[in-house]
Specification:
Blueprint (H helix, E strand, L loop, with lengths): L3 H4 L15 H6 L5 H4 L5 H8 L12 E6 L4 E9 L2 E9 L15 H19 L30 E3 L11 H10 L14 E2 L4 E2 L1 H8 L2 H13 L1 H7 L1 H5 L7 H14 L23 H36 L1
Parallel strand pairs: 1-4
Antiparallel strand pairs: 1-2, 2-3, 5-6
Helix pairs in contact: 5-6, 5-11, 8-9
């Protein structure tokens, strides 16, 4: 008699299968860090940014942390301890309306303003704002702060997280703003807008155009000529504030001056309670059931209406034939 295992293709018919993940593998498996599992932190890069020389024990190693979200630009001066990172100063693009920049809070020009703001705010906090004023006249050229007097300039390194460091990326706008604001940050001009990798030349005028929103002005004028409807929707906030492309350079020039005059943070007044954005009043069980029944009835009526329309179309086609 033929065994069931032969009929069903049992163990006798199977070839040799190597067990790849043995019990020993699972015993020795080490779970990765939580922020690595979430895809938020590059620990290989973080180690190189955070680790300090042994002969500089307990000396903080500062980082200019830049993060760009869909609606905001975040700049923070951070140093790490065993207990975690410590933020000593921060600046955000949503603070720029105070300095006259009410729209376009995530473009390259706004990044420059945010970097300039955190630099001046930090140096004011440390009492170095008079010794290191940075680059007053913005020309887009390469600028590195040099030591003046007894006190050394505040030094930090750029931390971009998981951002792709392509030429012209917005994170380098924050870097340029912080460098012009008086911070000592090791960098070169190779990632600024206007650098030609093939020719190995840097065009400072192109970089200056980006700092003052010239690329936004060009796009506004192009879109207004070629597609007025899209211009009305894409630049609705600019139109609402009566901001035209020609006035952007003056707007950002005034913003830079205001940031240098008063970089201090002013906390907003807090209210005891805030109005809910999307209030959802509580309903009884009977009200919930009634709402579900009403939805079902509406869907049923819509389906019946579609069926009636289909029948009418079929009848019209038959009459035509």
């Amino acid at each position: 008699p033929v065994s069931c295992s032969r009929i069903l293709g049992g163990p006798r018919d199977m070839g040799h299968v190597k067990i790849l993940k043995t019990a020993a593998y699972h015993k020795r498996y080490q779970v990765k860090f939580r922020r690595r599992r979430e895809g938020k932190t590059d620990y290989q890069a973080r180690k190189r940014l955070v680790i300090q020389d042994k002969n500089k024990f307990n000396s903080p190693k500062y980082r200019l942390v830049v993060r760009c979200t869909n609606k905001d630009i975040i700049c923070q001066i951070v140093h790490s301890k065993i207990t975690g990172d410590v933020c000593i100063c921060s600046a955000y693009a949503h603070e720029l309306p105070k300095y006259g920049v009410e729209v376009g809070l995530t473009n390259y020009a706004a990044c420059y303003c945010t970097g300039l703001l955190i630099a001046r705010r930090l140096l004011n906090k440390l009492g170095l704002d008079e010794a290191y004023e940075g680059q007053d006249e913005v020309d887009g050229e390469m600028y590195q702060v040099e030591q003046e007097g007894d006190k050394a300039p505040f030094t930090c390194v750029l931390d971009v997280g998981l951002t792709r460091t392509t030429t012209g990326a917005k994170v380098f706008g924050c870097l340029k703003g912080a460098a012009d604001g008086g911070l000592s940050i090791p960098h070169s001009e190779k990632r600024f807008p206007g650098y030609d990798r093939e020719a190995k030349e840097f065009d400072a005028e192109t970089h200056k155009k980006y700092i003052f929103g010239g690329h936004v002005q060009e796009y506004m004028e192009l879109l207004e000529e070629e597609d007025p409807e899209r211009y009305q929707t894409q630049f609705a906030k600019y139109i609402e504030k009566e901001i035209e492309g020609d006035s952007l350079e003056e707007l950002y020039t005034n913003a830079h001056a205001k940031i240098r005059e008063d970089p201090l943070f002013e906390p907003t007044e807090k209210q005891d309670s805030y109005e809910q954005v999307n209030p959802q009043p509580k309903r009884t069980l009977a009200e919930k059931k009634a709402a579900v029944a009403a939805k079902k009835a509406a869907m049923k009526a819509a389906l019946e209406a579609d069926d009636d329309d289909d029948e009418e179309e079929e009848e019209e086609e038959e009459d035509d034939e």
